[in-house]
Amino acid sequence: MLNIIPIPAFEDNYIWLIENGSQATVVDPGDHTPVISFLSKRGLELTNILITHHHSDHIGGVNALIHEFAPQVFAPEKEQYHFPHLSVSDQQIIHIADLNISFEVMDVGGHTLGHVAYYGANSLFCGDTLFGGGCGRLFEGTPLQMFNSLQKIAKLPPSTAVYCAHEYTEHNLQFAKSVEKNNLHLLERIRQARMTRAAGFPTIPSSIKLELATNPFLRSNSTEICQTLNMQHADPIEIFTILRQMRNQF
Questions:
Q1: Of the candidates 31, 45, 87, 167, which lies 20 to 30 Å from 220 by C-alpha distance?
Q2: Do residues 128 and 13 make contact, with C-beta atoms less than 8 angstroms apart?
Q3: Spans of all domains in the chain
């Protein structure tokens, strides 16, 4: 049996750990300390690291983990890294032998130019591209690039579990409500997210189905969003661009 476990880091990061009882793979270890602590408590061997993009809160712990465990590291081909790794690119299949999982690499640039996601076992590890109720800021890419990346993700099976790297859901949903206040699925998700966080649990993973129903960055064709923005005749990419600009100030 495989378990996927969030290891909290910094203020709101999640380092995702996939384990089978003896071996483990981690995604985006920005800090080595909580990872080593968790592995030690569970008696797990770290065999692989998956990197989605180059920001320090996603890679800051890699060198220490390499020193401690000598795992294989996978990282995007379009970005530069100062640690040993195998470069991965769009549509490449990587196999994690000890967990018996294969992941398809997806090019999902926008937050950074070379950002990738890993899709396998009905799960998507998407870093800072798609968030619960939101999407990543455009630090390097263009609105069109991010729009296309999110459309690619949106085509995955609705039941796909979405494992993003930050606990931003509640704030994202408040922004979503500001542009689509009559979305009943959204209002219910806000209620559920509030209860979940009050109980001390992550709102992540979500699902592609839930994001399609409530995430404004996947809903550029929503009649209500178009009316709220007074952009009834605009192109979906124009609407996405305005939504991202608005979210930056929210």
A1: 167
A2: no
A3: 3-89+96-249
pTM recorded for the entire structure: 0.96
Helix (H, G, I), strand (E, B) or coil at 190: helix
Assigned CATH class of 3-89+96-249: alpha beta
Q: Is 45 helix (H, G, I), strand (E, B) or coil?
A: strand
CA 137 to chain centre: 12
Q: Per residue in 155-185, pLDDT tens? A: 999 999 999 999 999 999 999 999 999 999 9
Beta strands of the chain (E only): which ranges?
Answer: 3-9, 13-19, 23-27, 45-50, 72-76, 86-88, 93-96, 101-107, 116-120, 123-127, 130-131, 134-135, 161-164, 206-207
Q: Is 60 helix (H, G, I), strand (E, B) or coil?
A: coil
For residue 190, give both structure tokens: 């806000």
